[in-house]
Structure formats: structure tokens, C-alpha cells
Amino acid sequence: AFRKLNHDDVTDEHRKIFSIVSYHFDLTEDEVENSALCSPDGPELLKNFEASKTSVLLFFHQKEKPFLIESSVGIEVPLSLILTDGKNQGINGYCMYFLKSEKTPNLICGRLRARCSEEGSMAATVNSLLKNIYMPSFSIGSDWTKNELKAEKNRNACLDSFKHFNKYIEATEENYKHIVNFQDNGRIDISGVKTFEDCQKFAIFDEKVLLVEQLMADWIRIIQEVIAESSQIRMEADDVGPLHELRYWQYILCRLSSVADFVQSDKFHTVIKILTAAQSRILKLWAEQDRKLTDKINEARDNVKYLQQLEKICQKFYENDM
């Protein structure tokens, strides 16, 4: 039922990979080869990997819940092993990965378990890998000290930078939890309004315009609250360094940027067009808030940029315990 498999394209390097995969997943080499060639884009991935045009191959194995692959006659056939580059499919299961660089012919392979989920974020995933895998490996590694006069100092500096970056990702993930969300009040549906002509027709009905104005008033109130938060005067202790201040302004910038993203959305622009067609007075209030929002975003960006440079200077004092 599968498409005709072209085994002639399989090279010695491919067979070496198939042998490793078959050993780890308790399969025969023929089973691995057939699964690789039957996988979507499998033959092309193998060919590009051989030519170093593709740098990664991923073999996912799911014995309990096989992958369903469409055959040449349009029937879905189950496979317990699938070959992919991981760019398009969200796949769960045990994985054997193979890496290759254009600069070196050496293969790097390893095994891991992957689980795709809509929960969490990319920042949390990266942070987990850095914190639980790479950091412990770097901490116990012994290759640092070979043929280096200042190996220990360089090692400590690298680990300190690594920890600093790890904390930055944690702060980013925490800030993401506080982005500003704009909800509909559920009283008016503007999904059918696409063009300016649609806005003009919509603006004929006073009761509809009133509901849009109420929606805009709710959004403006939220924006005013975020702007007011960024304008608060803060009292800090004398021993608080620039890192604490940097994290605060990164939090503020994250909040303001999420507002700016919403203001640039199609939905917000549609509301503005409707209110413009209706010559609504609330646009004057929005123009004032728009100016304030722009000023606050620029201020937050400048503060973050300045504090990042200051933190780089102070980091040297932290590392030397001065």
C-alpha cells in the first residue's frame, strides 16, 4: 500500500544511522529503513542530510500509538517510527537525533523524549533545557582546564554569564504572564466589517456606534491604567543594584509593548475606522492616550537600554566580589 520505495538512494551513512536507530528502538534495520523512506519528506531529508543541506534528522518512535502515514492509494497506514526534521509536525514520543555540520563530517547523535503541549511557552522550554541539562554538564566538565593558564577564571566567568542568562529567561517568562489582555464586552460584533465602505454603512446606525464607543472606552481605560502604572514613582533601598531596576523596566516595557501590539491589530484598526466614519468624539480622547503611550514606550526602551549597559559594567564587580 505504501508508495514505491527507492532503496537505491540509501547510502552507507544512512545505513549507519539506521543501525543506531534500530539498536536503540529494538527494531530491525529493514524496519527503520522502510519507515524512513515512507515518512513524509523522508527520502528528501536523507538526501539533504547526506549533502549537508539539512543539519538534523529526528527519528520519533511511538510503539503504543503509531503514527498514521498516508499511503500511495490514499489510505492511512500506521508506522511506529517516523523520520522528520521537527519543523512542521508536533510529535510526541522517544526521539533519536542526528546532527551534522558543514565544517565537520562527524555525526552527533543522542536520545531524548519529546512531548508537545500547548501549555507553557518557548521561553520556559529553553530555560528548562539550560537549567536541567546544560548547566549541570558545564559545571562538572573537566575539559576547561586543559592547556589554559586562566582556565578556572574563564570557567567561572562563563558559568556566571550562563547563570545570568538563565535568570534573564526566567524574568522574561515571568513578564510574559503579565501581558495586557483586551477582552470584548460581547455586546457588538464587528467581524463582518472589512472595508471603509463597510464602516460607513455600519456608522449609519447610532445604537451600533454607541456600542463600539463603549468598547473603545473600555480599551482606553485599560490603556490608561497601564500608562499610570509606568508613571508611578518608586522608592528603592540604597543597596539595590541596576539589575533589580532593569527587571522592573523590562516588566513595564513588556506591558506597554503588549498594548502597542493590540493597538496595531486589525481589530483595533477596524474600531478606529468605524469611529472615524461616525465622527465620534471619543477619538479625541484616544489621540491623547496614543501620544502618552508612545512617550511611555520610548521612555521604557531608553531605560532598559541604559540599564542593560550599566548592568554589563556592574557584572564585572559581581564576578570579582568587589
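Next protein, fold it too.
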Amino acid sequence: MVIKKCLKSVDVFLCESCNFNCSKKSNFDAHLNTAKHKMITNDNKKNAKENEKKFRCVNCDKGYKHASGLSRHMKACNIINIEPVKTDEVVSELIKQNHEFKVLIVEQQKENHTLHQKILEVAKEGKTIHNSQTNNQINNFNLSVFLNEECKNAVNLIDFISSLRLSLKDVESMGKLGYVEGMGNILVKALNDLDVNERPIHCTDIKRETVYVKDKDKWELDSHNKIKLKHSLFKLEERNLEMLPIWQEENPDFNKMDTKENSDYINISLNSLGSENELEKEKQTNKIIKNVLKGVTIDKGTDKIVK
């Protein structure tokens, strides 16, 4: 505030904001142009403006001088108040739920231990495994010869998953396409890049989803619960999550609200582990397996992969 006073016929110029006074107007004008005066008076104006509207809407940040004005505005404001998603907490919770689901799969694996042992014994003896319902050999196709001789150099399933070279494009596709299609595309593409005899998975009956898996250098019939295939999907989930920090480095604005990077990050985080509901997650896993088996089904008559 600038005040001009007259004392004993002498003009005194006083700047209360800066606690400055003088008797010459030229000196006073010079003071008004100083950096100190401008800084102090600008701060005062800024604080005054900020204090004018101290009541703000939590939805749209519109300010009001009085609480009554804000109250009327809140009744009409139709912007939905969406609290920021704590993405790191979401990912941690999904990982925890994924771990619990893995424990369930391990328990199922123990229950099928006896069945696995019988299958191993049959595989070691080199016998042709018959269909449990028809009990007939599959035409002239010798499954044992195909697996143990033609496909003897096939890679183990767990080694196949570990060797996959995921890209940031794969991570982003998971966010765009969703868990089922994203995971399925990664597996199908990787299997198609291998020769038929090098693949770790072969399906002999797509309807009954009869599938053989290369594990520990031996071909085995996966159980009706598809324990080995489900375990490989869990490993692929972990591989995909390992790419997330790299994606974050390439997209530094991922933690800034209302940015494309933040939206992509949330979608990737949520879709990388599938549904948090146990039954829904089981359906998603079975759908992925069915889609993958379509690309590795053997033509019983020709010994070739059905395209």
C-alpha cells in the first residue's frame, strides 16, 4: 500500500509494503521500479487472489469465496470424483492373488501324482497310448515314434518359456488386447517360429484337448487339468511382469495422472495377470490353452500339424 502524507508542508512518500519513505517523488518513483518492491507487491497480490477463493470443489477445482457458493455448486457439479488408482498397490495385490492360485494348482498336481506315474511308465516302455474312450489306435499314426524319434530334439516346455524374448510391444499388446488374447498371441507366435519337430507341445485330439508336453527331456501326456501348460502360463506371466520396469523407463510419465502413459500403465498392470476372480481366471487360462492347441494339433492320418 502506498500512502502520501503531508507533514509541515513537506511531502513524505511512504511505501508500507516495503517500509520505505522519502521526501522526493523522484526517489519514490525509483523505489516503485525496484525488484524488491515488485516482488513484495506481486506476492501480496498473489496471496490476496488465492485467499479470495478459499472454498474449492473437489471434483472440478472451481473456487468460491463463500461456503454457501460452494455448497450450491456441489449440488449441480456432475463430474465424477475418481480417486487416483494406486497402480503399484494394484499390481502387488494381483501378484499376491496369482501366487495363491499357483498354490491351488500345485495341490491339484499332487492329487494327480498317481496318474502321472502311470503315464511315465507307459512312456518309458515306448508303448502307444490309446484313447481312453475308443481304446483304438489312432489310424496308422504311431505316436510313440513321432514323439520319441521325430521330435526327440524338441525343446523342453519350461526351457521354451524361459527362452522367449519378450518386447515392449508384447507388453503394450497385453494392455490393449487383454489377458487371454495377449498371452495367446505371445505363445502362438513363438511356437510358429519353431519347426514342428522342435516344438515342446503337440495335440492329438483338439476336441478332447489331448496334449503331450516335452518335460525334463521326456514326452508326457499332460493331465486333464493341463497342469504343465498352466504352470508354463504362470511362468510367462512372470516374464511379462519383468518387462514392466523396462516399460516404465521408456515411458517416464506413467505415474502422472491424466496422461496416455498412465492410462496404458494401468491397463497393462491389470491385464498382465488376468482376472482376480479364481473361477474367471480358470476360464481365461483354459481359453488360452484351447487357442494355443489349435496351432499344434497333429493330423492323425498324415502325421502333420493341422493349420
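About the second fold: DSSP finds 13 helices and eight strands in the chain.
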